[in-house]
Amino acid sequence: MNNDARLKETISSYDLENISIATVCSHSSLQIFHGAKKEGFHTIGIAVGEKPRFYDAFPAACPDEFLIVESYKDIVSEGVVKKLLEKNAIVVPHGSFVEYLGAENFLSFKVPSFGNKHSLTFESDRKKERKWLEGAGVPIPRIYDTPEEIDGPVIVKFDGAKGGKGFFVTETAEEFYQKIKEHKNCTIQEFILGARYYLHFFYSPVKSTGYQLKKGSLELLGMDRRIETNIDELFRMRILREGSLGHSKNSIQPSFVVTGNAPIIARESLLPKVFELGEKVVEESVNIFGGLTGPFCLETICTDNLEFKVFEISARIVAGTNLFPSGSPYSDFIEPDLSTGRRIAEEIRLAVKSNKLDEIIS
Amino acid sequence: MNNDARLKETISSYDLENISIATVCSHSSLQIFHGAKKEGFHTIGIAVGEKPRFYDAFPAACPDEFLIVESYKDIVSEGVVKKLLEKNAIVVPHGSFVEYLGAENFLSFKVPSFGNKHSLTFESDRKKERKWLEGAGVPIPRIYDTPEEIDGPVIVKFDGAKGGKGFFVTETAEEFYQKIKEHKNCTIQEFILGARYYLHFFYSPVKSTGYQLKKGSLELLGMDRRIETNIDELFRMRILREGSLGHSKNSIQPSFVVTGNAPIIARESLLPKVFELGEKVVEESVNIFGGLTGPFCLETICTDNLEFKVFEISARIVAGTNLFPSGSPYSDFIEPDLSTGRRIAEEIRLAVKSNKLDEIIS
Amino acid sequence: MNNDARLKETISSYDLENISIATVCSHSSLQIFHGAKKEGFHTIGIAVGEKPRFYDAFPAACPDEFLIVESYKDIVSEGVVKKLLEKNAIVVPHGSFVEYLGAENFLSFKVPSFGNKHSLTFESDRKKERKWLEGAGVPIPRIYDTPEEIDGPVIVKFDGAKGGKGFFVTETAEEFYQKIKEHKNCTIQEFILGARYYLHFFYSPVKSTGYQLKKGSLELLGMDRRIETNIDELFRMRILREGSLGHSKNSIQPSFVVTGNAPIIARESLLPKVFELGEKVVEESVNIFGGLTGPFCLETICTDNLEFKVFEISARIVAGTNLFPSGSPYSDFIEPDLSTGRRIAEEIRLAVKSNKLDEIIS
After folding, report:
1. How many CA atoms lie less than 13 Å away from A2 in the CB half-sphere?
2. Which of C58, C239, C322 shows the shortest C-beta gap to B334?
3. B touches which chains (3+ CB pairs under 8 A)?
4. Rounded to whole angstroms, how far apart are CA atoms C304 and C193?
5. Bond before A230 cis per omega within 30 degrees
6. For residue range C34-68, what is the model confidence (pLDDT) as tens digits?
7. How much is the average pLDDT of C109-119?
8. How far is residue B362's CA from residue B290's CA, in Å, rounded to a whole number?
């Protein structure tokens, strides 16, 4: 029996009156527990070594129990799996969860998890992700095969460059070659300039009201802009150096490390485009891997032609949703006090009621 | 009978127990419907061609009924007017509403609308608007008649430049002439540097409590900063080009297209100045066209001398208020859960109760 | 009897059923009154000359009574003190309060005030504050004794430069001497580049639940980023001048005047570090002056190595908390509708109940 089939069987044996919601204590876990508690679920925080002390500071987001493991890999051990299954646990994956556990371990994990695990393969592999976006027919930045093709601003990205260090922008092939000799280990991507919008969607395959897709419905729960360090502040240094460029050997170079998030909204007249993006990405996901389920995020730039270019998909809850534990300017138009974490818990509740739990777990 | 008189007559024949609130589905319409529904009004969404699909995603902001028209101009047709009057509709204008319908059509529209239509003439004509601001006695940026007068940083704006394209900053007449030969089709405006604050006010001619003006009262419901694309992100490109300026023929030029909004607050010690600005603008509006009514926005820059310079007035609800469908850091000090959309509905309710509906519609 | 002892005596004679919360009408006073009113306290607004008119616009934050004084110094006069004591007033200090009154006057003020007055001495003296931070063992920017030591980007700050005018960044001793001849009246500080986070903490010496310190507990109530004028907008001018540097005699120079605040959050995985900073600063404060009590703020920069460098401590409520009169993305995980202002009122309530009022006033 493959793991998919095994998990469907597992969930069919769950005590549906006593489901627990579990996740690893990081990333967006406070929000996930906070939402689950509001919906009346038992909650389990999985932590390495010891209970994270800062949870004490947030009683309304503190899980009912902690499951302490020795290492992240330990989460898939027989003992931990047994404990989680005994509690009828549904695990909610987030960015750190999958990163810490490893994609392989997560794919063979014997505890039912919220959403479609197969989205992972497409999210973590840049080429597969690009095919997904192309298949969906949403606007994406052009990739240049050779420097000679450069016909406007491009950003040159190096594989494995930590935090985007060394990335540069250029506008001609000549400039490109002045900066580096070859282009083997770099990607030459169209430089798209505009406002960054991270769009927080939720796709429910089981909800029959709302913005209808071929099957289920699509929601927009919020938007944020990531705070990227140090690129978002580097202009201050440049200004304070009065235009000189900082080329001494100890000068600070641009980097793109996400340290947090700020709340934003988009013009209401852009919402039809926003939903179109979300819809196309969902429908294509249904075609290629059975559909992403639950929260996902499109990372876009809105240009001054009011077009959104999609850079990336996060096929799970993103940390930007942590801005809105009690609702966002968008979720307020759905129902009061609705976070993405709470929406996940609602979805589990709805699936239980309509006897469709197997459609939202994997 | 002129239209003003006709509309007063119309409103006097309305069934005041069954007023509807109607607007065109765009701009800030979700918020307007959301607020009107909370206040218990029947709501009508006017849409061209078909019901906008994204409304399905926001049930708490979805109007009770949609009125589908063939084109925006069709809104003033006899048939549509009849339908709206039958529903005792008060139309709430917003930026897109007036833009789509055309100012002329709106001025002769036979359905009562919230606020004072005559503010439009002053808001849409830059010279009249400037006179309004000058008459109010609020600080505004200097306009230079000739390049020779330039004595500090100025921004040179070209008439009809879409999204602010081609705008540049200069500091001397020489620099000016290096960039352009003549100044016939451009405005030379003092360049004010500082933090941009968009101040969301609400003027009620009928409310007798609160911050009292000669007649009625003034409220501050929120603040935002507009996200201007691409100017707000262009520094990233400049940094990533390591200071080179992007003068190849395909280089990206600055533009100022509003794509969204971000929430901000001002220092509490600035509030007396903020209210003074709002008060002066309202009192002058009473003098010159009978007074603006309801929501309006002053677009300001706060300099490092802590002075606000006013650039523009929006004499109606602005899209930045969409940040606060359940209250802002300012409206929370008035009452919980108060959006500008809800405040409009409250104002209609208040005017009905105090038999002053004719004072807040036109 | 010293003032500390006198105030303990005063508070022991208070009618604990009828405590008033008083503060000067500025800075964060709307929030303080708003929170105190929600907790059912009688509230007193101290204002110079006349009641500030803008309070009329915010009924839910308007104090129950105003105490009009002739000047800020007048607050410590016998007459005013008598009135405050009659009302069993506890005064909540904020940035403007202490600034207007003067530290000396505040230290000898005969009305009990919330928190520990002795924190003031350490907050207002840069050298003492630095010792506090060093003693706490939190990361702080390096101070260079001589220009010759410069080995990377530094910011050169001039003593008493209003709004940070004249500050510049340099990377070498040579560059330093090109710009100024001597370094007597300036500080050469390591230039830390990253995202600015202002962390809003609350330390309760009397609360026994939550994130436990040696005594009492620590809370995180929010975060903001200050809006600094004009430095945060100056890049727009630079871009619009197409890279030219603005060296005409009337050119705009960088400045750092705080005009307001914007809401942000940090990655959840950074919270352990955030609490560690808060904890270390509190524990050291207990060692050196008996402990800061109530709200305080650490002004930090988060680098692309995900390290926080602490620049400053505000040992009292900061204006950035005004963003969250009805709760922040962090306080929502504690309880709904919790502002820092309300938390202060709660703390007074809690101290009264547990008979520990003398531990939270001074």
Report:
1. 3
2. C58
3. A, C
4. 8
5. yes
6. 999 999 999 999 999 999 999 999 999 999 999 99
7. 96
8. 11
- Cβ neighbours of C262 in B, within 8 Å: 225, 262-265
pTM (predicted TM-score): 0.96
- Candidate from B167, B210, B336 with C-beta closest to C57: B210
Q: Could you say which of B26, B30, B230 has the minimum Cβ distance to residue A193?
A: B230
Which chain C residue lies closest to A60 (C-alpha atoms)?
C333
Distance (Å) of CA A4 to CA A118, A216, A299, A353, C58: 10, 21, 29, 22, 57
Q: Which of B223, B250, B224 is nearest to B237 (CA)?
A: B250
ω before A88 within 30° of 0 (cis)?
Answer: no
pLDDT of residue C65: 98
Q: How confident is the model at residue A236 (pLDDT cuts 50, 70, 90)?
A: confident
Counting one residue from chain B and one from chain C, the pairs whose CB atoms sit within 8 A come to: 165
| φ and ψ of B358, to 5 deg | -65, -15
Q: What does the pLDDT look like over A237-275, one tens digit per residue?
A: 877 875 444 455 566 788 999 999 999 999 999 999 999
A197/B241 touch (CB, cutoff 8 Å), yes or no: no
Q: What is the mean pLDDT of residues C350-358?
A: 96
Q: How far apart are CA A43 and CA C187, in angstroms?
A: 52
Banded model confidence at residue C249, pLDDT cuts 50, 70, 90:
low
State the pLDDT at residue C233: 85
Instruction: List the structure tokens of B115.
Output: 């606020």
Residue ranges of chain B whose pLDDT lies below 50: 243-246
CA–CA dist A252, A236 (Å, integer): 12
In terms of DSSP bridges, do strands C154-158 and C168-170 run parallel, antiparallel, or are they unpaired?
antiparallel
Q: Which residue of B has its CA nearest to C252?
A: B153
Q: DSSP assignment, residue B72?
A: G
**Cβ of A220 and B57 within 8 Å?**
yes
Is B268:C27 a contact under the CB 8 Å cutoff?
yes
Residue in chain A closest to B59 (alpha carbons) equals A334
Measure the CA–CA gap between A239 and B193, rounded to whole angstroms. 14
Report, in this order, helix, strand and coil percent for chain B, each rounded to 5: 40, 25, 35
Write out the residue limits of the CATH 3.40.50.20 domain(s) in chain B.
1-113
Query: Which residue in chain B is spatially nearest to A230 when comparing CA positions?
Result: B236
CATH of B1-113, one of 3.40.50.700, 3.40.50.20, 3.40.630.30, 3.40.50.720: 3.40.50.20
3-class state of residue A30 by DSSP: helix
| Chain A residues with beta carbon closer than 8 angstroms to that of C337 | none
Average pLDDT, chain A: 93
CA distance B361 to B359: 6
- What the block records as the tokens of C239 is 């871009």
Per DSSP bridges, beta strands C89-91 and C20-24 are parallel
Q: What is the pLDDT of residue C124?
A: 81
In whole angstroms, how large is the CA radius of gyration of chain A?
22
Beta strands in B10-100 (DSSP E): 20-24, 42-48, 65-69, 89-91
State mean pLDDT over C77-94: 97
Residues C149-182 pLDDT 10s: 999 899 999 988 888 888 888 889 998 998 888 7
